[in-house]
Amino acid sequence: MEFVDTLHRTRSAQLFEEAKKYFPGGVNSPVRAFKSVSGPPLFIKEGQGCRITDEDDNTYIDFCCSWGPLILGHNNAKVRELVLETVAKGTSFGTPTRLGNQLGRLITENNRYIDKIRFVSSGTEAVMSAIRLARGVTGKSKVVKFEGCYHGHVDSLLVKAGSGLATFGVSTSAGIPEDFAKATIVLPLDDRELLDQALQEHADDIACIIIEPAPANNGLLLQDKSFLECLRKKCHKYGVLLIFDEVISGFRVGFEGAAGYYGIQPDIITYGKIIGGGMPVGAYGASHEIMSHIAPDGPVYQAGTLSANPVAMAAGYAALQQLLEPGFYEGLERKTRHFVNAVREHADAKGFEMQVQQLASIFWIAFSRDKIVRASQIDAGSMDKFKVLHHELLQRGVYLGPSGYEVGFVSAAHTEEDLEEAAGKMKQALDIVFK
Ligand SMILES: *Cc1c(COP(=O)(O)O)cnc(C)c1O
Questions:
Q1: Alpha carbon of 421 to ligand 1 centroid (Å)
Q2: Are residues 301 and 414 in the same domain?
Q3: At residue 334, what are phi and psi to the nearest 5 degrees?
Q4: CA of residue 57 to ligand 1 center, whole Å
Q5: What is the CA radius of gyration of the chain?
Q6: What is the pLDDT, as a whole number, of residue 136?
Q7: Is position 2 within any domain?
Q8: Which atom of ligand 1 is nearest to the CA of 270?
Q9: Looking at residue 1, what is its pLDDT?
Q10: Nearest CA to 229 among 187, 264, 197, 190?
Q11: How many angstroms separate the CA atoms of 63 and 345, rounded?
């Protein structure tokens, strides 16, 4: 497939060449390298509302939104103002701050699923700490995860299912000791039989089951609520802690995340992305009892030099306050549904072999009409189509995350007009994909 670039990206291309001298692959996070789409990655210099501008002065309607954090769009005025006010007084003290309290209060008072929270600096750190906490509380060591869920680059979770009947994991990255991978049991999503079997055989060694309740890192693999309820029940029965990794879904599908959306009480919840209002923040929360195991109250050690950094707390606080305004999530979902339906109707009318999945303000295009609830149901070959779609959208000024396994995010800054424009461009691009 030849890709004709009508997009002028000379400056981005030059910067990428330079970046390769300093950073492995020219990037500081692998997917940014545009390996599975065409052309060099765009170097973005500015974002305003739902639009980003690259170093060659091309502007795009952005559906990546920094991979999820920017639910209010770029450069939100209230976030910017509180960050500037805070920064003027210094950037870090390594002490408790009033702003940390404010964000802690805002979250715990508006979330029925956690009593206490601990701030860290990334989603990965949140998950890593939650796993340690689960092990500390239960005195057990094994972890169950599901294929198609991403939990950051934690050693024991960069693991896929082993071959054959063995459910013990094998690592998906070099540099992970085999013993770490073996401490993880990997199961397919939506499979109660294998879940039962794993619990019956290994419950005495299993500290926790971790799941993205709305898996959104490998396509959007929406689960039946009954599967999540089954997890909840089995965890109780077998003395295993249930961790909801809500780094994407937290504050995205509602202020109380997927726990609130499905009405299911997990034992520990991890957050990231939106919680920091665009600054590096992660967190984990649980009941008073479970959180009492964390140092300095309890024996599970976890610390961070820049944890609850005041500037990051300011960004999170200014952002999350806006999410609590009445009708915020309803409005966002309505806009997203309207956009998604416009694309669906076009695809259906033309008989395109595709579907658009949606949950709240998250959407995902799959090049298949089959129901997809497991990672194994995604056709890797269909990613060629995504590559064309991504390319054609870039030419037209619409930016999707540079991989067909990534979901799209709609922000409050996307107006109905922006979304109508984007839907029109999406239709044109799909016509070329299926030409
Ligand atoms: C993004 C993500 C992580 C990792 O968060 P980082 O801040 O990138 O470390 C973990 N879990 C889920 C569900 C995520 O979406």
A1: 30
A2: no
A3: -60, -45
A4: 30
A5: 22
A6: 98
A7: no
A8: 11
A9: 66
A10: 264
A11: 20
Residue found by looking up tokens 């939650």 in the block: 130
Ligand 1 centre to CA of 157 (Å) is 12
What percent of the chain lies above the pLDDT cut of 70?
99
Residues known to be catalytic: 150, 245, 273
Residue 3 has what pLDDT?
Answer: 87
Omega within 30 of 0 (cis) for the link into 30: no
Q: How far apart, in whole angstroms, are the C-alpha atoms of residue 303 and residue 306? A: 9
Cα of 370 from ligand 1 centre, angstroms: 27
Residue matched to tokens 């960050």: 83
394 lines ligand 1 (CB under 6 A): no
d(CA 273, CA 159): 22
Name the residue at shortest CA distance from atom 14 of ligand 1.
247
Is residue 353 a part of any domain in this protein?
Answer: yes
Instruction: Tell me: pLDDT of 103 over 60.
Output: yes
Q: Containing domain of residue 70, as a range?
A: 10-75+327-433
With cut-offs at 50, 70 and 90, classify the pLDDT of residue 161: confident
Q: What is the pTM of this model?
A: 0.97
For the CA of 29, the closest atom of ligand 1 is 8
Give CA 433 to chain center in angstroms: 27
Contact 276 CB / ligand 1 (< 6 Å): no
The domain that contains 177 carries what CATH number? 3.40.640.10
Confidence of residue 236 (pLDDT cuts 50, 70, 90): very high
Name the nearest CA neighbour of 240 among 272, 196, 271. 196
State the closest ligand 1 atom to the C-alpha of 149, by its place in the atom list counted from 1: 13
